[in-house]
Specification:
The chain has about 60 residues and is mainly alpha-helical. The chain has a domain of about 40 residues. Helix content is about 70%, strand content about 0%. It starts with 7 loop residues before the first helix and ends with a helix.
Length: about 60
């Protein structure tokens, strides 16, 4: 079985975690990462929304189906 090389994110996280963060710092880092990826997902959804010309009325319609 061949071991897969670490990704650039895994390498950076290993470097970061080698500093032995406090529990508070670790929690804050998790929140920052969660916000980053949530915003990235929102931006992607907004782009698709604009490309398809969707509106709030479309969303209300879907919610009531």
């Amino acid at each position: 079985m061949n071991a897969q090389p670490l990704t650039n994110v895994q390498i950076e996280l290993l470097k970061l975690y080698s500093t032995n963060l406090s529990q508070d710092d670790l929690l804050n880092l998790k929140k920052i990462l969660a916000r980053y990826f949530a915003q990235k997902a929102i931006n992607g959804a907004d782009k698709i929304w604009e490309e398809k010309g969707l509106s709030n009325a479309d969303m209300k319609k879907w919610l009531n189906e």
